[in-house]
Amino acid sequence: MRTKRADTVAAYLFLLPFLVLLLIFFVFATGRAVYFSFTDYDLFRPPNWVGLRNYAALFADALFLSALRNSILFAVIVTAVQTFLALVMAAVLNQRVRGIGFFRAAFYMPSITSSVVITLIFLWMFQRRGLINYLTETLQRHLPVLLAFLLVLIAVQVVQVAWERRSALPATWTDPALFVVSLLVAFGATWLLVTTGVVAPRDVAPVDFIWLQTRDTIPSGAPFWLSVPIPLAAIMIQNVFTTIPTFMLMYLAALQDVPKSHYEAASIDGANATQQFLRITIPSVAPVTFLVLTLSMIGTLQMFDQVAIFGDAAPLRSVVTLAYFVYDRMFPGAQTPEVGFAAAGAMFLAVLTLVVVLLQRRLVRSEGH
Amino acid sequence: MRRILAIVLATALIGGAFAQQIRIMGYGGQDPAILVRLLDEVIGAELAAEGITLTYEPLEGDYNAALFNALSAGTAADIFYIPVETAPGIIATGKVLALDGLFDTAPFIDSLVEAYTVDGSVYGIAKDFNTLAIHYNTDLFDEAGVAYPDASDTWATFADKLRAVAALDADVYGTCFPAGFDRFGAFAFATGWQPFDADGHTDLLDPAFVEAVTWYTDLVREGVAIQPSDIGQGWTGGCFATDDVAIAIEGAWMLGFLRNEAPNLQYGTTFMPIGPSGERGNFLYTVAYGINTDSPNRAAALRVLEAITGPAAQQWVLEQGLAIPSRTALADNPFFLEGTPEAIANRVVFEGAADGHVLGFQFGNIGTDWMTPVNDALVAIMTGQATVDEALTEAQRDLNALIERAR
Questions:
Q1: What CATH superfamily is the domain B133-284+348-406?
Q2: What angle, rounded to 10 degrees, do the helices at A62-93 and A230-256 form?
Q3: Across the interface, do A335 and B365 touch by the CB < 8 Å criterion?
Q4: Residue ranges per domain, chain B?
Q5: Nearest CB to B369: which of A216, A315, A333?
Q6: pLDDT, tens only, B318-360
Q7: Which residue of B lies nearest to A315 if distances are taken between CA atoms?
Q8: Are B17-128+285-337 and B133-284+348-406 in the same CATH fold?
Q9: For residues B377 and B386, what is the distance between their CA atoms, to the nearest angstrom?
Q10: Measured between CB atoms, which of A214, A216, A335 is closest to B89?
Q11: Half-sphere exposure at residue B96, Cβ-oriented, CA atoms within 13 angstroms
Q12: What is the pLDDT of residues B204-254, one digit of tens each?
């Protein structure tokens, strides 16, 4: 009995340093923020109780509604895309191929690079005369050449496989040895066509797609709550690129635990690769999927840094998220900080995140079992 | 041993009684180095003799946010920078000392004192100021055989000169026009338009403002002017340094940048072109020093304020080519009469402050947020996403909401 109590005391003593920090920087700070959200506090004058006025004002604020719409669309789209792609990439990297270590390391690079640096690089790529518009233009210009190459490639492959099959040899449509021959022939043929001038790059107008400095949305003219501002889409692309590797790593760990015997049994039963992926891989990693979905939802709902770095490069209304809205109201123009209003925004974001995660827990759980 | 200890203690006590530590908070970047040199070379010895030592604490990143935090937490320095565009908010915190009767503001340029006056009290002493001027690349103008821009240029003749230089080559542009009111505003003012009427309202659909927007954005639509980001630059100075852009509309802050980035670029400087009102338009950009009301060393802080805005300090800052002094007495300084491009540029920027419609870079208590709807409209027009009318109507709506909120 006595030792048990001593144990409890010891446990609390060990927990104490963390509990103190938690109390000061989380419980106390959250409590104060909740209190401030019901006041008109501005950091300098004593706060006055204003009841729910700040919360009502939130929904009358056009910037807040944009922020809410942007945050929700951002969270849903980015979470869906990056979870799916992370799983696919993990499945690809889970194979026993020579040099797989290199690819695993290379694919993980975006995650260990500073988000600030990546955002700055993407800002350059998304400029009107940036890399993305340049590549699109180059692709359009060389489309005839590319098409010629592909046509020759497919034709030669089909002819070769048909030839092999006629000789009663078992050749699949993607036979690697034949494919190498097709590639070489296609390269040669395309080179010949280009030098003889039969096929030439087209003249196309420079691509001038505006990624950043625009208020347009995709799809254009859609209802307010369903339209994604184009600059936000640019941030989505960048965010997917930087966060996939982290989730890919989680999936990779989970995939290594799936017993090989399941796949062997399935292939004996005649299941093809797609069927194996859908029927074995996805159900086996369901618990990790829940983790990935939850982390991704929380991370995307609270996205702040990329909007802050985009700064003046894109109209605020097109990229503002709830987290950035809170910051923006905390330091508005040449007025004193609107702490009460900003705190109300922060509380709304916290509750929204909680509700979304709880909802998702219900949905994924009921599906998993 | 005991005696040595007594001496150490005594010195510490005496030193403690006399030495006063004054802290200054300001921008990062090159400002810390400038202040250290100013102390070493001009005012440091004098202050040290009076037992005052100075330390400079740069606030990197978002200065406004950092200063508000420091002010509310009680950790702000004895003296801090007050940027003109956020001055109303900083003064409204009640943490800035009113200088009435404590400091003589008479030797300073009136419009600069005015920018820091709230309800008849002065809260800041401008450390220096800047206006916009036309800096032109003489080599490009010579190559095109076009006369240099000069003080008699109107919008029309100015645009014609830009067109003629831009015709040199597809990669050569007349100028970089950013989609920002912080530069464009000078043209809007040249029509006689003012950002606020007597009731504090803004009229973006005023024909004068529409005319300025049309002229400014048409030059971009025409390809004579280009947005800096479209040639991979962050600002007009960056464009100018590429040697492919004939003129830059910037303040004297660009000179130091050119000295480092484009030392071989030959340039001249002249006044802004004359607008439809028959006058030029210009911005007055400035930063002031303010004193913390909670400073425990108020007397020493005032003494420091006097020294760092004093004639000796301002003369030094001017001669180093760092900024334009805020004291009227320095107007006929021999430095301005030197024939070097930098001296000429400084003189043009100095005289620009009193030439035509010159307004402070200030937007009441709405602050720089005021510019956001206008900037969005400029982008939309320049990129062909909206007509002048559509864009300005939308901007007016957003701006009305902003002004309503700030009340």
A1: Periplasmic binding protein-like II (3.40.190.10)
A2: 40
A3: yes
A4: 17-128+285-337, 133-284+348-406
A5: A333
A6: 877 778 888 888 877 888 888 889 889 998 998 888 888 998 8
A7: B376
A8: yes
A9: 8
A10: A335
A11: 27
A12: 999 999 999 999 999 999 999 999 888 878 899 999 999 999 999 999 889
Identify whether the C-beta of residue A229 lies closer than 8 Å to the C-beta of residue A319.
yes
Interchain CB contact of B379 with A (< 8 Å): yes
Q: Does B400 touch chain A (CB under 8 A)?
A: no
Taking CB atoms and an 8 Å cutoff, what residues of chain B touch A330?
65
Whether the CB-CB separation of B358 and B282 falls below 8 Å is answered with yes
A44: chain B residues, CB-CB within 8 Å: 71-72, 93-95
A 40-59 → B contacts, CB under 8 A: 43-44
B75 and chain A in contact, CB less than 8 A: no
Q: What's the whole-number mean pLDDT along residues B189-209?
A: 93
Whether residues B365 and A210 touch (CB distance < 8 A) is answered with no
Distance CA B203, CA B187 (A): 16
Long-range contacts from A208-211, C-beta under 8 angstroms, 24+ separation: A208/A128, A208/A133, A209/A128, A209/A132, A209/A133, A209/A136, A210/A128, A210/B383, A210/B385, A211/A126, A211/A127, A211/A128, A211/A130, A211/A132, A211/A133
Q: For B62, name the nearest residue in chain A, comparing CA atoms only.
A: A331
Q: Do A335 and B92 make contact, defined as CB atoms within 8 angstroms?
A: yes
Structurally, at CATH architecture level, domain A54-139+207-368 sits in Orthogonal Bundle (1.10)
Cβ neighbours of residue A145 closer than 8 Å, sequence gap 6 or more: A190, A193, A194, A199, A200, A201
Parse chain A into domains and list their residue ranges.
Answer: 54-139+207-368, 143-195
Give this complex's ipTM. 0.79
CA distance A336 to chain B (A): 5
Residue pointed to by tokens 């994924």: A364
Other residues' Cβ atoms within 10 Å of the Cβ of residue A309: 17
Nearest chain B Cα distance for residue A353, angstroms: 26
A127 touches chain B (CB under 8 A): yes
Predicted structure pTM score: 0.83
Would you call B377 an interface residue with chain A, using a CB distance cutoff of 8 Å?
no
Q: Decide: B165 and B246 in contact? Cβ < 8 Å.
A: yes
Instruction: Please give the DSSP secondary-structure letter assigned to residue B340.
Output: S
End-to-end CA distance of chain A: 41
- Under CATH, to which class is B17-128+285-337 assigned? alpha beta
| Contact by Cβ (8 Å): B307, B177 | no
